[in-house]
Amino acid sequence: MTDAMSTIGITCFNAQDTIRRAIESAMRQTWSSLEVVIVDDCSTDGSVKVIQETIAPYQNVRLIRHEVNSGAAGARNTILREARGEFIAFFDDDDESLPDRVAVQIQKLLEYERNTSSSQVLCYASGIRRYRNGYTLDLPAIGSRGQAPHGAELADYLLYYRRRPDWFYGTAVPTCALLARTGTLLDAGGFDVDLRRVEDNDIAIRLALAGAHFVGVPQKLFVQYSTSAPDKSPEKNLEAEQAIVRKHRSYLEASGRYYYALHWHYLRYWHFKRRYSRLVLEFLGLFVRYPLASTRHFFTTAPRRLLHEWKMRHR
Q: Which residues are bridge partners to 214 per DSSP?
């Protein structure tokens, strides 16, 4: 098969210590027809200088500089508008992708299209997250086992954790693991620039409600290095998560899950704020209204989360 043009999009904000690694991993990709579009989202450190030095030897790399910070969603939309590739993959500025990542994901996407005649397919890579204390966490891709999640039932999972036992949800829908046809994301309207967090969940929900299929590859094709940033605060997460729920209020009210979807995010917020009495009160409010769903959700996710946090601190 002749390699179709593919775009790798890298957004950068104050990543002078890691952006070189991300760019070099993009330049090592084995897919032959490739361009790299980098958007610096108004960095205030030395990121632009590092980018310019790193891309100087290459002809297939473009740097676009935002004069005003627009967040990850705005930077990714710039990449979508500028992309010349039939396919697009997003790399984060603090991650590293293995050389076969783009090739493996495109082959998986094309195979799925041939076998199912699906016109909207999103393909996710599996990966690894590394923490500074040496602890590593596997990040298996959604749809990398069994039947690929698709349609409104996947939106239900992303909005209020309604699961099907025959679907594998992996680590959900992070954009840093995504490859898709560029037109699929453009037709969906791109990323929501009003969201400063979880914009990847938002576009996935919109695409799922439009009938999209979500497939994954089991190969670990990227390494995510755990970092902290002001926009990763509990407050920013809660604000964005609830904004997504409000966007889909009419859909959620039709299934009687609007209150559940809106208030479940408070549990995570109060946990990170260490306000455990508020967490208990919030859970009790959910339990009274949705006893089975809230109990199943809590005991499916809470033990795993607590074990993960213990390993982050003690490994």
A: 122
